[in-house]
Design brief:
By secondary structure, the chain is α/β, with parallel strands linked by helices. The chain has ten helices and 16 strands.
């Protein structure tokens, strides 16, 4: 270290503040907390004008240092109001559902979503607990504005939120959409997936339809679909020529057309070839995952000629009871038992 450098270090000179704004922003982004980034403004005037230009805003009240719910929501409003970045690569707003906290006003969440629709060009993550008191289950409307620039949207909503779409607008850049809980009209959810998101590749849904509805997915872009729970779905139809991975759970009736399907997971429902139809699906799978004993039936596995990897989820008691009740032929029983000891099998048709 040279003499001049040694003197600067000993004098306590602030060398970090002399770095370019872009480098300081990179440092603040790594804090993963907008409140912590804002507090660096106490260091000097220079730092005060750095954090409002951050390309990422992370606001999470699960942080041990987060203030009470009411103050935290004020902090979210303040951070959004102070934001000077033209676009955001990440906007994360997460309010913990635990603890004795006041409800989240619908107007506030709506403002946050409108802000996201104007600024987010990367990822939007929103965790919104109930807008009501614990003893109030009344639905509260929440509009999801068209986020033209967002590429990834993840929404965790309390059951009392009812998500709705504006009359017009496209999610032109959206490639990944995940909605957990909340409620939505079946027709609006169909429109969102089929017509409002022309570039959507990844879709994950675990939500409730307002009324019983025949839900249809028609997409030329989807590659992965995960439907862990769609309560009030009477019949499911999927037409997706590029779909490669599919997870279905608790499906009463389904019709699947996915010629490129390579990975299939089937959970929480038995299989009935009259109600669950694979009309245009390849005969070879890389992965077949079957959950619950009632789903393990030979007729389902014989939909496919070859599977590279098979995953079965069951307990032995349920499996043995299933065999006793259904009086499976020896060939089928032998096939099922063999599958638990191999990663690759070829389905043998019993003569």
């Amino acid at each position: 270290m040279g003499e001049d450098q040694w003197r600067r270090c000993c004098s306590g000179e602030d060398r970090i503040s002399g770095l370019p704004d872009e480098m300081l922003q990179e440092i603040l982004v790594r804090l993963c907390c907008a409140r912590a980034a804002a507090r660096t403004g106490l260091l000097s005037r220079r730092w005060r004008r750095v954090w409002p230009h951050l390309p990422e805003l992370v606001l999470d009240d699960d942080d041990p240092d987060a203030p009470p719910r009411a103050s935290f929501m004020d902090a979210v409003d303040a951070a959004i109001g102070a934001c000077l970045a033209p676009t955001l690569e990440l906007l994360l707003i997460s309010l913990s559902p635990f603890g004795d906290s006041p409800p989240v006003p619908a107007g506030r969440v709506a403002r946050w979503l409108r802000f996201a629709s104007q600024c987010v060009v990367g990822t939007l993550y929103l965790y919104a607990p109930s807008p009501n008191d614990d003893d109030d289950r009344e639905e509260v409307m929440l509009e999801l504005p068209a986020c033209k620039g967002a590429k990834n949207i993840t929404l965790f909503l309390a059951e009392s939120w009812r998500l709705q779409l504006p009359p017009a607008g496209l999610f032109m850049a959206l490639t990944s959409l995940s909605i957990s809980s909340g409620r939505m009209e079946g027709s609006e959810l169909t429109a969102l997936v089929c017509t409002r998101c022309p570039r959507l590749k990844l879709l994950s849904l675990c939500t409730t339809l307002v009324t019983t509805f025949d839900f249809t997915i028609r997409s030329d872009s989807l590659v992965l679909v995960s439907l862990r729970w769609l309560y009030n779905t009477r019949r499911l139809e999927i037409v997706a020529p590029r779909l490669e991975e599919l997870l279905l759970s608790h499906v009463i009736e389904a019709r699947i057309s996915a010629p490129k399907l390579a990975k299939l997971a089937w959970h929480g429902a038995g299989y009935d070839p009259h109600c669950h139809q694979f009309v245009d699906v390849g005969r070879r799978l890389k992965l077949l995952e079957i959950g619950t004993g009632e789903s393990i039936v030979p007729s389902f596995m014989r939909q496919f000629d070859e599977v590279d990897e098979l995953k079965l989820e069951f307990d032995m008691v349920c499996l043995c009871d299933f065999f006793k009740l259904n009086f499976l032929p020896f060939n089928d029983l032998y096939l099922l038992l063999c599958l638990t000891h191999t990663r690759k099998y070829r389905v043998m048709k019993a003569s």
